[in-house]
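Hi R.,

Here's the chain you asked about this morning:
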Amino acid sequence: QVQLVESGGGLVQPGGSLRLSCAASGFIFSMYAVSWYRQAPGKERELVATITNAGSRTIYTDSVKGRFTISRDNANNAAYLQMNSLKPEDTAVYYCRATWAKTYWGQGTQVTVSS
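And the predicted structure, written out as tokens:
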């Protein structure tokens, strides 16, 4: 059974940090590129960051460059999104996606940045 399970979301004050995790099972995780997306209320889902299957290349949307870091641990079938200097506009549901032969999505984890 294929699963992508996000965790680590929560409520944080502006300027704070969170680390999101994405746990994969049921497929060959090391073959798949992994992306983090987010969707804020009333807005379309947007791509935040992508990491290649071996972790050799990363790409970020401009609004998170220098603040967010995507990483992965293929030995443990996991990916991460370290989020620093969080802003209220980062508030959204964050989704993990794995893509190669097929595309898999997680169920999302809520991140709320508010004082």
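The chain has a mean pLDDT of 97.

Let me know if you need anything else.
M.
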